[in-house]
Amino acid sequence: MRTVAVISRKGGSGKSTVALHLALAAFLRGRRVWVADTDAQRSASQVLKGRKGPGPQLAETTGPKLFALQVSCQRAGAALMVIDTPAVVEEEICHAIVAADFRLMVIRPTFLDLIAAIQTTEIARRLRKPLLAVLNQAPSPRAGVEAPAVKRSLEALGLMRVQVVPTILRARAGYQSAFETGRSVEEFDPPIEAGREVGDLWAFVETFVFGRTKSDVAQNLQNVGVEP
Ligand SMILES: Nc1ncnc2c1ncn2[C@@H]1O[C@H](COP(=O)(O)OP(=O)(O)OP(=O)(O)O)[C@@H](O)[C@H]1O
Ligand SMILES: [Mg+2]
Description:
This protein has helices spanning about 15-30, 45-50, 65-75, 90-100, 110-125, 150-160, 175-180, 195-210, 215-225, and strands spanning about 1-5, 35, 55-60, 80-85, 100-105, 130-135, 165. By secondary structure, it is α/β, with parallel strands linked by helices. The protein has a 7-stranded parallel β-sheet with strand order 3-2-4-1-5-6-7, sandwiched between helices. Bound molecules: adenosine-5'-triphosphate and magnesium ion.
């Protein structure tokens, strides 16, 4: 079993949205998935409880209980656990960072999110754990040109030596309406653009998380210049 933690010190950046979409993406492709909701606000839980039909399993938990949960999920045949985390409770974020094989920091292309990204990155570096970032709620490019805020954010993350995943998640209403029925944006018929984004993001994360051994993941991160 592999574990993905979705983290950010910034509230509302899209942690629950990204965590659930990764979990649903894996589920829709046939993997056995658990969502570990460690945020007392229980946003991820609310969405999954509103889902009709089969979906990822849900565990409402806290950071200190993650290891025991991982053991029981592994025994139950889980292939993937996705941890949703709170923005402000540093202890919870630390537990999730340590428990995970792959950590994804969610940030919007804004000044305040970038400040929070510095704080999130510092926590991970203190724990000597690598992380990658995904830009979320980004404006769509106009005539193929990225908005200045997106360019500035990518530059800032480069200066922080944070590797950014190749898919940018755009601000799209589908991400909000999908959760009204506990769905992924990949489950819309006809397909919507957001679904393609999530498919691309999952393809990257899946290769990273399942396509290599744990030590290879660490090696790859070093190869691309991400500090532990
Ligand atoms: N790419 C997107 N496009 C449009 N809306 C989005 C997108 N991502 C997230 N949202 C919306 O932004 C709001 C915050 O998202 P979400 O709850 O996932 O953030 P969070 O980081 O988990 O927040 P918290 O810190 O409160 O846990 C929600 O209303 C969500 O539907
Ligand atoms: Mg949340």
